[in-house]
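Support reply, case 0932

Customer input (verbatim):
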Amino acid sequence: MPEPILVSLIVCSYKQEGYIEEAVLSALAQTYDPLEIIISDDCSPDRTFEIIQKTLFTHAGKRNITAYQNRTNLGLVGNLNTAFALAQGELILVQGGDDCSLPDRTSELVAAYQSQQPKPDLVFSNVHFIDNKGKLLKTQTEHRSIPTLEQVIRGRFFIAGGMAAAYSRDMLEFFGPLDRLILYEDYVLTFRALARNGIKHVPKPLVKYRIHDESIMAHENAIAQDREKPTKILARSLAQEDDRYSTWRKSGRTYIFDGWRLKRYRTYLVADARSSTASRPQAMLWLLWAILTMRPFFARTIWSRDILRFQNSDSYTGA
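Our regenerated output:
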């Protein structure tokens, strides 16, 4: 049997006073040991952090716990970066402040993490979807096959949901902090893991993921559907693709992109720009941004006829 490893469980909260007590209690109820729990509140303007403190005062016991509140609001990615930097565990689990981890979540993910060599950089499970009152909406039951990096670049869409994921500290340190412009952090972290030691799926629901009007999923959907701020959407898309391109460069797999003319990446950018009703002048502004911030990959991509002609075309075929 493998030796126990130190694991970190991060709970990220923001304006979740109605759910945070249950979230913290679920973290404290984990059966795995040794475990450190890090609770990072992103300067909530409500009673979220006060409830965190009261819950820990009553129920913490002898757990290794760090709880703090950011002085200013850093956003989801900024809050994650701060918590990742504090984590000492070999494996780092993430949980939302409105979600709940089942008691055996950490044990199950650690077992999967230690079941293969090299150890995967990302392990994730299925989830129970619940509403704001905790009522079960749906349960994931499928066993998800993991694509290769090459398959993702060729066009297969795949994300290991961050609400049910654990990441190796080695991977997080290797690639460094996430760009705070990124909207979908799990989109980027999934790609990073595929570029290194891969991903392992646990086909069991180990998280209760809450869907409500102020949840992360609802917030992300609102931004994605915001037609009045196309430049904001395009900026986030560029940041995400910039990170994936940097990840590929750092992994040393040069043959992948060179052989396929970056087809899928231009498809992402064109689709995002078209859906947000961006215009050619806006695309040219992003070209200038890419040049000034020394992003030759995106300067080349935006300059290509594919990205500049999209507003006159109803379909896109790529290079």
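We compared this against your earlier run and they match. Two observations from our side: Residues 228-312 form one domain. The first strand starts at residue 7 and ends at 13. Please reopen the case if you see a mismatch on your end.
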